[in-house]
Design brief:
By secondary structure, the protein is mostly helical. The protein has helices at 7-23, 30-37, 41-47, 51-75, 80-94, 100-108, 114-138, 149-161, 165-168, 174-187.
Length: 193
């Protein structure tokens, strides 16, 4: 049986996501995940060697789903401005409930391989997305004079920005900062609806 079709595996992913988003990676124990999921530790270890492997699986699932959603939006028959708005709204919905602890743990963790996994996965997904962005650019979704690779560069800078405590203090929550960053990349400082 594939893990993605196993209800217990999926419950662990959902519970891991919920707890990691709220408390960060480091503050959540395997015991807490198992209790919240209603799954034994023995079952947990059938799927994941440790907490880092669960975190990687959660990130992988979320990132892969995001890519599929963006690709679907780019294929829609709608105005470019509507597509960009939908992508930003998708980003906003996907980041609801993210804590400062989550951002710090996931984007600055060291020694456990999580940060490197996220960087490598992100790089692979962006390489895949660049093909779709270039197709969308030819259809007028993005400016003709824009280099889609610039979006990848900006996303990396965004990862640095969302862990900056001084910047985070300007916003009510990390989600507001992520939305601000997405809006800035999409619209600059121009007013938009």
């Amino acid at each position: 049986m594939k893990e993605e079709t196993n209800p217990k595996y999926m419950q662990l992913l959902a519970t891991g996501r919920e707890l990691f988003w709220k408390y960060g990676f480091k503050k959540v124990s395997i015991q807490e995940i198992c209790e919240r999921a209603g799954i034994s530790k023995m079952t947990y270890y059938r799927f994941f060697e440790n907490k880092v492997e669960l975190a990687k699986a959660v990130f992988d699932k979320e990132a892969s789903q995001g890519v599929v959603e963006v690709k679907n939006i780019l294929k829609e028959k709608s105005l470019p401005s509507e597509k960009i708005k939908k992508i930003i709204m998708m980003k906003q919905n996907g980041t609801t409930g993210i804590s400062k602890e989550f951002l710090k743990d996931f984007y600055t963790s060291s020694g456990d391989g999580l940060k490197e996994f996220i960087e490598e996965k992100t790089k692979k997904l962006w390489q895949e997305m660049l093909v779709d962005f270039k197709k969308a650019q030819k259809k007028g979704v993005f400016r003709k004079d824009m280099k889609p690779e610039f979006l990848f560069f900006m996303s990396q800078k965004g990862s640095e920005m969302i862990t900056d405590e001084r910047l985070l203090r300007l916003y009510k929550n990390p989600q507001d900062l992520l939305v601000e960053f997405s809006n800035f990349v999409a619209y600059g400082i121009s007013p938009h609806k």
